Amino acid sequence: MRIGQSEPRRRKPILLIVLVAISLVMLTMYFRESDAGLLHTARRVTLEVTSPIARLGTIITSPVRAVGDYFEDVGASRERVLALEQQNEELRARLAELEEARQENERLRALVDFAEERKFAKLGAEVIRRPVSIWEGVIVIDRGSDDDVEPGMPVIAAQGLVGQVADVSSNSATVRLISDQQSGVSVIVQSTRTPGVVRGSLDGSLSLDFVDRAYLPVEGDVVITSGLGGVYPGGIVVGDVISVDDRHGELYPRINVASRVPIGSIEEVFVLVGAVVEADPGEIE
Length: 285
Description:
Layout: H1 2-32, H2 38-117, E1 122-129, E2 138-141, E3 154-157, E4 160-168, E5 173-177, E6 184-189, E7 195-199, E8 206-209, E9 222-225, E10 237-245, E11 254-258, E12 268-272
Antiparallel strand pairs: 1-2, 1-12, 2-5, 3-4, 3-12, 4-5, 6-7, 6-9, 7-8, 8-11, 9-10, 10-11
């Protein structure tokens, strides 16, 4: 049994040697013969026979390759889309920053122009806290005693009168708004020069009190500070008359006023410090 099993193992190397020898002989003959030789002719015939099969294989596998190319393109396109989306977000953020800077410059320019026209001695400040409800009649600014801010100093915005400094710390100050129920501003109606007092209320609305019935204002009349009392300089816009209710039987008519200052979104103000050169109230429009 062992002798019978050893013979095939000896034949395998011999067969391999014979096949290698045949291959070398055919390779040598192929390179030595002309293009019209037997081996060259056999190669051409083989290619002609197998070409249709190769083309058929290409046709069969082309959808698979197309799907692969599609998903490859989709992956690349998705990466490009993500990159473009990121660039778009960066550009939008930059645009928002530029727009914020532009709006801030416009607000500050209007505020400076307003103060310069009236020759106010002023100190710029930023609002660091606004009212959280209509019943809270104060704001907080980032200027305090270190900046020579003192209680009683008027505070204005580009749209008009804001209020008066109430309390001061070293780096901040609380400003009582004219809409606060404890506030009162001596005013005149610009068109008729009729005097009165604008008062705040618990809900933040403004009323014009102590106006003579003989000189009633009308809706749209501008109300400005009179300069009397030594608290506020004259000529600062307080607001506009929005309603007049002359009920008989009451001592004074009910007149409502709306401030022009957007307290809910105000960001910059001026504190009027030092000596103030009063403007002619008739110049305000």
